[in-house]
Amino acid sequence: MAVILFDDNTYQQLLPLTFTRPLANLRVGILTIAEKWVKHLSQDFSYHTRNYLQGKFPIHITADNLFINGAVCPDDSLLDDISKLPLGHALRYQGQLVAVRLGEADAKSFDHAAAYTATEVSRLPVIIRYPEYIFRFNDIELRKDFNLLTKGRESAQISSTNTIIGTDFFAEEGAIADCSNFNTTRGPIYLAANSEVWEGVSIRGAFALCEHSSVKMGAKIYGATTIGPYSRVGGEINNSVVWGYSNKGHDGYLGNAVLGEWCNMGADSNNSNLKNNYGEVKLWDYTNKHLRKTGLQFCGLIMADHSKCGINTMFNTGTVVGVGCNVFGGGFPPNFVPDFSWGGAEGLEEYRLDKMLETTARVFERRDGRDFDENEQGILQAVYELTR
């Protein structure tokens, strides 16, 4: 049976993060949503997504296909319901398609809005509907992923120079840590293979450091925080999710935030996560083109893929930065920095696509010569055209 993670209209509510990826490629907890399903189902997977993403995220259809909503995170109850799903039948939650099992012919004409014969899911699954849901649900998903990845296994040994408080600590082979403090009494701590925690770091769980990532000396990190693969962080971080190939390598505060892939925060950059009047935070909504109430008192920065900020940048509470931006200068930039913008508080102009692509190619080259291929370039070209 082929597992196919599909996009429905939820992706529009998760812009700008989903301009450059399918829903199931969102990382929340330790794993992406797609990786969670793979671990549970022990099946290969592919994506049913927008046309301009399909080259990088291809679809594979067979005689028996299980389509799963890419915004839905697995749990035991949902997995049980899906295991009983007969061919031609679906699961819905409050009208939203969660999963459907289809033969080859029907799979080729799959439409998430079609009226499939469906059973209603009674128990609320974790569904990532808005950008802030990523850090809101990171604690729940990190704990679930920790149990999934470590069940029946023993942690590798790390240096005795570290202090570990509590028992929910797990290091994969190749993880390195020296002279640091790990407190697991508030949540588990997971160090992936070939990750490194430098000297003098203090980490309070829940926390995950993914493969080939590092935490620099003296950093202070509070849960629930995830640092994705091939990233480097330092300074003070609280309840944030940093995706792969991104850097926040210096002092400065990042809290209640999401950083996409290939992002860079300059030294001493900070985000506010609490308004001075302690009021509800609003975020820019791409679907309605105005600010949306989040229901949250704490909400910091949402930065999409390939965006960067210069040293000492100050982001106000509830700032959204689109794809491919370069933010710099004194003062607070606007609470919404549109995709492919260049500038800051004194004004924004368009970041020319050719110049942005030149920079991106250099960034890729620094990562062990990773190829900035036609699929990657095509996605950015498509997003640029969509946002003009």
TrEMBL record:
**Keywords assigned by UniProt?**
Acyltransferase, Transferase
Q: Pfam families per the record?
A: NTP_transf_4
> SUPFAM superfamilies from the entry?
Trimeric LpxA-like enzymes
Q: Does the keyword Nucleotide-binding apply?
A: no
Q: Name one GO molecular function term.
A: nucleotidyltransferase activity
The record ties this protein, via NCBIfam families, to: alt_bact_glmU
Q: Which PANTHER family match?
A: NUCLEOTIDYL TRANSFERASE, TRANSFERASE HEXAPEPTIDE REPEAT CONTAINING PROTEIN
- According to UniProt, the name of this protein is UDP-N-acetylglucosamine diphosphorylase/glucosamine-1-phosphate N-acetyltransferase
Q: Which organism is it from?
A: Mucilaginibacter yixingensis
